[in-house]
Each structure stands twice: as structure tokens, then as C-alpha cells.
Amino acid sequence: MAMIKRQLPSFLRFPKNPNLSQRFMLIGLAITLLFLLLAFFAPVFQAWGWLQNPKDFLSNPIHDPPSAQYWFGTSRLGHDVFSRTLFGAQAALQVVILATALSMVIGVPLGMVSGYLGGKLDKVLLFLMDSIYTLPGLLLSVTLAFVVGRGILNAAIAISIAYIPQYYRVVRNHTVSVKTEVFIEAAQAMGASTWIVLSRYLFFNVIQSVPVLFTLNAADAILVLGGLGFLGLGLPEEVPEWGHDLKQALEALPTGIWWTTLFPGLAMTLMVVGLSLLGEGLNEFVNPRLRRQNSIRK
Fold first, then answer.
1. What is the Cα–Cα distance from 141 to 156, expressed in whole angstroms?
2. What's the CATH number where 216 sits?
3. What global pTM score does this model have?
4. pLDDT confidence of 168, banded at 50, 70, 90?
5. Domain around 196
6. Virtual CA dihedral for 287, 289, 294, 298, nearest 10 degrees?
7. Helix, strand, coil abundance in the chain, percent, nearest 5
8. Residue 178: inside a domain
9. Which of 76, 90, 119, 223 has the least CB density, counted as fewest CB within 10 Å?
10. 85-101 residues labelled b (16+ CB within 10 A) or e (exposed)
11. Which of 50-59, 122-131, 263-272 comes out lowest in average pLDDT?
């Protein structure tokens, strides 16, 4: 009896000769994994901690430039910029992953239920989500941050609200198109409950774009978190955060302390670029039309 060789779905099989967009996706994946590793091992790489001990102010000058002892230099307050940058990545990843996960957990089920059931519930949810979607994300997050206050969980909640409509709209539109398929009608004819249809037959057919949204929203959430920190609304001041560090650095920039601005800003930019490249690459894998266009170009 011949052996049957199991293969992964076509969108999960990476080609042997990747095109330009797929190479960019690999670069984005490498950058994202690098920040994940740096954030996870931040305590190991920590040099002087977030703030030098008081005795160090007597023997070491404040705002040292980058050197073998202080790789990214120190701030005018005695902060080791390298340590602050690493722990800033840790804080950013915690908030961003939590915020995007919250918006996904809320938006995906709402989109499935709204698209499948329709009726008045669908109209009410559409109106509510469209109303939220029309508001600028940063402005909405700033307003909510005033209400909920500082902290990792509070910042994640303030950021996540703006992304719920995106998951809702994408999943709802897919659900509306998939619920008329023959296999859905067959399940309904056999007496399958709404929960069974949603969880067993619809879910895996309407979430293809969710990983793409997750990565792109994560990239945007880093900028939103940085904006909140710059305005003093993100995390507590004692927690290293890139936006807050950039605010402090800009105040010292006229005195020639350029390194406290460069490294946190560069770290934020690299993480956003990495997640954006990863999201655009994933979009090609889950979008058959894009894969077909790239195959034609080859």
C-alpha cells in the first residue's frame, strides 16, 4: 500500500526561492525575534540597572557619552541608556502583545456573531464599531488613558479599544460571505447549533487575515504607546519606556546629549519596521490574489 505524504497547506509552505516581499518578511521576522530575545534576556544584559546608585554620582560624571563601560552612554539623570532601552523593549512588548490580544479576543467573536446572525444586532454593532473606527486611534487612546490611569494593563486597555473595529470588520465581512457556503447550510440542515457552526465550521474559514492584523496593529501600538509615554500618560515614570525616555532626552538635546535620543528612537523605529515587514509578508501568504500576482511577475 502506497504511503500517503502529508503536506502543509499551500499558504504555510515557504517557497525555495523567495521573492522580494518574502525576503522582507524574513528580515521583519528576524528583527522581531531579536527584540523578543533582548526583552526576555534584558536582566542578563543589564549593565548598571535603570538608575545608578547614589554613590556612583560622586565618582562618575553624569551624561557620559557611549563608551566601553556605557555602551549607549548615560543620561543627565544617571540612567544607563543601554539598560533603559532593553527594559523599554520589554515594557513595549508586554503592552503591545496584551493590547492586540485584547482587541483580537473581543473583535473576532463579535464579528463572527454579528455576521452570522445579522438582524438588529448586526446593525447596532456595525454602528458602534464604525463610530469607534472614525476616531483617531492616538486621540482615543489618550482620552482613555486619562480615564484608566497609568500601568501596563491600563495602557493596554486604552490602546486596544481602537483596534477592535478592525478585527470586527474583517471577520464580519468574511463571515457574511462564508455563511452562504454549502457546508454551512448542510450543517444547519443537520440541526447544528449556532455555537457549533461558529466554532467548528466558520472560525477557521474567517480568521486568515487575523495574523496580519495582529502584526500590523502591534507595530502601530508601539507608536501609540510611545505617544502616551511622551505625554506622560503611559507607564509609571519608574518603568523604562521609550516614549518617556524620548521626552526626557529632547529636553537635554540642546546641551549636546544626542545619544539619549538616538538609541531609544532607533529601537522604536526598528521594532515598528520589523513588525510591519512581517505583517506585509504574512499578508501575501494568506491572500491568494497577492500570491498569484507575484507568481505571474516571476
1. 9
2. 1.10.3720.10
3. 0.81
4. very high
5. 19-36+70-297
6. 140
7. 75, 0, 25
8. yes
9. 119
10. bbbbbbbbbbbbebbbe
11. 50-59
